[in-house]
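Example 4.3 (complexes with small molecules)
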Amino acid sequence: MALVPFDDRDGFIWWDGKLIPWREAKLHVLSHGLHYASAVFEGQRAYNGTIFKLNAHTDRLIASGRMLGFEIPFNREEINGACAEVMAANKLTDAYIRPLAWRGSEQLGVAAQQTKIHLMIACWTWPDYFGADRMKGIRLNISDWRRPHPLSAPVASKAAGLYMIGTLSKHKAEAEGYEEALMYTWDGFVAEGTSANIFFVQDGKLHTPITDCFLNGITRQTVIALAKARGIGVIERHIRPEEMASFSEAFLTGTAAEITPVRQIGTALNFTPGKLTEALLNDYTALVRMPPEEVEKRAA
Ligand code: PMP
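Answer. The structure with 4'-deoxy-4'-aminopyridoxal-5'-phosphate bound is encoded below.
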């Protein structure tokens, strides 16, 4: 598969209030965000020209920055407008949108209170995170790395630094022939994938880990609302790894992953993507293409 490097593409990137040609969006190597991971980001998807749950994403971006001790110098409306602007400039209607805020290069040390906060927004096409035949399901290995204790990191923030754990986990999974990794919490409960939350089915009900040390995904919240609208019970709780053997279906949820069925976890656990997963996948696929007012009404 030929890689198209991310720094060598046509198009435009929105950077601190202006659109600039894609290849010119370069950063100095002495940027605080690069050395100390003082960066937060979002991942959003647009369907038919509308970014799904944009307010929720923008609010989380701003909140993530605050959790890292900085204020993004643009408000919700300005950020939302910039997302629309960069999509239009790149002539995209179905796209993945990536805003990123980071500390600049005015100071380079652990303490960097005087750094300027920057914001850039890029977008590109990203059709299907886990490929076209999604109902087949993907295979997850179990990561050696765990999600950190909430006293060890700002776990509710979409902070770049936290993705070190995800990259290590996913690289090992891929090296072992799996598509994704399942991480446990610091205290050994089932947590999430490297960029998606996880759900299980047992006796017609959904079971999903409580998000006490990782991201409570916007897709996760959407799927819970969709399930409730169908009258499907949703149980949020601590899930012990050995309980996974009693679940019939499993799936991941995330902006990029959308709803992705899981067919295997580790070497011994098999799941058959079934009716409940398929029903929610169809509901989600329909919802993301509805006008924002309708989305608010159906999946608050
Ligand atoms: N967990 C992690 C670690 C993630 O990166 C993501 C993707 N943002 C999610 C969960 C799912 O979040 P969302 O549904 O808001 O995309």
